[in-house]
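Table S4 entry, SET domain-containing protein.
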Amino acid sequence: MPEHAGTSAASSAASLPMDDVAAIKGLESWIAENGGFTHPSLRISCGARGRGVVAAEPLSSAELCRLPWRLLISEQVAEESLSFGRDLRMSAEEFGSAPGLLLLSAFLLQERAQSSASSRDLRDQFYSPYYHVLPRCLALPASWPEGHWLHAGIKGSHLERQIRAKRHSLGLEFSLLQSFAPSYTWEEFLWARCVVASRAYALRGQRCLVPWADLLNHGASHEVQARYHVLDEVVQSDFVMTLTKDLTKDEEVLQSYGDKPNAMLLLDYGFVLPKSAISASVSMTIPTPQIPDTDPQVILKKKQLWSSSGGRFGRETVLELNRLNFDQHLQLQRAAAICSRSGEPTPGEPSDPVIEMAARDGCKTAAEQMLRRSKPSVEMGEIGERTLQEQDWEIFAQQACFQILDEERAVLQDFLSWLSDLSA
């Protein structure tokens, strides 16, 4: 999985640092010493997608790796290793957080803290060969510094809303973890949480960190050549990853992290695909309609209509608009138009010409307002040009944001075209 927020295309021919080469060799030796297997014709290289696994020679229908279950760091291992593991799980479940991700994060932090406290190197710990391969620095959006120019560049976008929501959620998780382990800092937590979020697999009902296998990068569905499964569903045994398509020499082996739009790939893993098959989304805010009626029964019916259409009373309704739900947004605007007009709503009103015109106008106004607020990528480029000594992660993050902002604007423009076609 990606080592950091990404690399520029210029790094496609770069070789791994010697420290990384030694760490990966140590990891593969550790796997072999503990009864596991990694294919000898695969090598780790640094390409356009960052650090990844490539074929040193042509391969077909091969087993890429096999790891005994005990080499995986499961959330069960984490829970049993933490003195507060059970309580943290219970609190996280009540809190609505993902307990597995939080448990694994706390476990990584504990392993690091124990190593420092005892003045021991990580190599003295069982999983140390894996720890040495983990990235030391991640630049996922949740860890962008406060006040960084990247935040100004995405202001008003759906991406900004998603990053704010992610940071808020992580902040609540951090507060929960601190109630059990107050010594950990926000920066330490962010590192561990981002490592886990970008690398954990869902296996047998729990999240697991899988050494070596998580070095494979993500590809679009037509690019994926690797599949994984756990042998023997009754007794915990081996994690196995197999090749599903033939590989040519120097071709990268790719797995799938799931079907996600580019914004989610950037948030969770720190990269984007050149062209995602999953539609981008845009947050559309629809204000609660003002009901002019005084009859309690009419008011109740209109509130029920608004709620059944996806609206929320008492606060603004936020709908994630994508190319698959244009009609849902129009339906909500129809309900708003009906609720705003005096009189009892009737089943035939959504097809009323006046209602239909008001609904389409509401959709058009909302989309045009979003387009005005959404910064074109050229404006973000100007912000970046004013920043001196950009780091690699900043350059990549800027390029990723360019792409996502353009995808958001394309959705809004397609929505306006769809509305125009309805009126034709």
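The first strand starts at residue 37 and ends at 38.
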